[in-house]
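TA notes, week 10

Several of you asked for a full example with nothing omitted. So below is the full record: structure tokens for the whole chain, then the designed sequence directly under it. When grading your own attempts, check the secondary structure regions first.
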């Protein structure tokens, strides 16, 4: 029995390979109609921040893993102390939960990262910007995703609201006699990059590791819009460097399961690490249809310490395009057009309510011609979202 904390689309997409492997899943869902709760019968509702709820959930599982990184580290450490198999471990997962912890550890490992510092005041931010150049990327160390918790600032005044919240949190924590939940903000030098890449690997407790081809990710408004596997025109040396970095991080941090390393490719041809995720990741959704072993099957194999599967791609190209919410709520009306027009397109919807900009599904097209795959995938995603009508 594999327990997944979080009932989002990642848990939902883990169910088909679990069925094939004869593995049972439980999900600690946010609500009774959460994405994964619609397809996994054993889905108690609970808050991942409630230790009693997480403990009760974990008691029925052989191993605990995650749909997201937001379970408090202290809860996971106490579960591990009581003998619960948490994979990835609290000690590994904290590097995906807290960007300041991640930056310090990667720096110690010699992994290329942007110049960074922690700032607690506008004056400290101004001093850092004077040193590295403007604009500066400002991030909340915890809790950000899909562009949330990230702010591009030219001066401290651009971040006035964030510093006000920081001061409020300090005052409230001091009055309650506890540490501030976010004592500082992470400031990073803006990286001059040509494109964004992602290296996806998996590692088991016994140390076996596997890596999928490095992919190109296309972002819009802080949200991943498109993934191309493998990254077009990527020199073999750069692909090897990106993969080596991801495998090094997985091994040195003791990651168990899937690890996604988001990177910037620089004009000089090297890579700089941006973010980490220790779970199946948007950049790996193409593997469901385009790889011998999907990231979801591989994650199950890894957390159960089974031999890992073959990560090689099935076709020359795979293009995954996210379906983002728009004005059209009835997504299924589009199936007749999309499936009749292109029987080769693979559609994956998440059973989520439609909101503008929200990831509500994705489509994948695989084949020999990259331009053709891209055009077909984009058309299908746009038609399902309702942004085009023919």
């Amino acid at each position: 029995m594999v327990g997944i904390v979080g009932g989002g689309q990642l848990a939902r997409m883990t169910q088909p390979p679990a069925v094939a492997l004869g593995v049972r899943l439980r999900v600690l869902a946010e609500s009774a109609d959460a994405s994964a709760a619609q397809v996994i019968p054993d889905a108690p509702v609970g808050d991942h921040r409630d230790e009693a709820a997480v403990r009760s959930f974990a008691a029925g599982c052989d191993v605990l893993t995650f749909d997201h990184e937001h379970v408090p580290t202290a809860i996971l450490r106490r579960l591990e102390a009581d003998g619960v198999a948490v994979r990835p471990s609290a000690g590994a997962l904290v590097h995906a939960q807290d960007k300041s912890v991640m930056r310090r550890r990667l720096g110690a490992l010699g992994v290329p990262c942007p110049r960074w510092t922690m700032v607690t005041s506008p004056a400290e931010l101004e001093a850092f910007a004077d040193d590295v150049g403007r604009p500066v990327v400002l991030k909340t160390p915890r809790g950000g995703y899909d562009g949330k918790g990230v702010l591009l600032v030219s001066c401290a005044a651009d971040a006035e609201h964030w510093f006000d919240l920081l001061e409020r949190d300090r005052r409230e924590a001091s009055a309650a006699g506890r540490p501030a939940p976010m004592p500082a903000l992470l400031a990073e030098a803006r990286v001059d990059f040509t494109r964004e890449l992602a290296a996806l690997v998996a590692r088991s407790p016994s140390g076996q590791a596997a890596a999928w081809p490095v992919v190109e990710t296309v972002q819009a408004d802080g949200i991943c819009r498109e993934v191309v596997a493998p990254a077009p025109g990527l020199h073999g040396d750069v692909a090897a460097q990106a993969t080596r970095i991801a495998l090094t991080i997985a091994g040195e941090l003791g990651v168990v399961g899937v690890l996604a390393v988001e990177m910037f490719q620089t004009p000089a041809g090297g890579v700089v690490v941006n973010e980490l995720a220790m779970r199946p990741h948007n950049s790996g959704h193409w593997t469901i249809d385009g790889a011998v072993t999907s990231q979801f099957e591989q994650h199950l194999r890894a957390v159960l310490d089974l031999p890992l599967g073959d990560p090689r791609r099935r076709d020359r190209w795979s293009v995954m395009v996210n379906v983002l919410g728009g004005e059209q709520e009835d997504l299924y009306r589009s199936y007749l057009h999309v499936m009749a027009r292109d029987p080769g397109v693979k559609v994956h919807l998440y059973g989520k309510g439609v909101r503008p900009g929200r990831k509500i599904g994705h489509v994948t097209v695989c084949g020999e011609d990259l331009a053709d795959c891209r055009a077909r995938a984009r058309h299908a995603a746009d038609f399902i979202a309702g942004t085009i009508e023919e």
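The longest strand covers residues 195-203. Use that as a sanity check on your answer.
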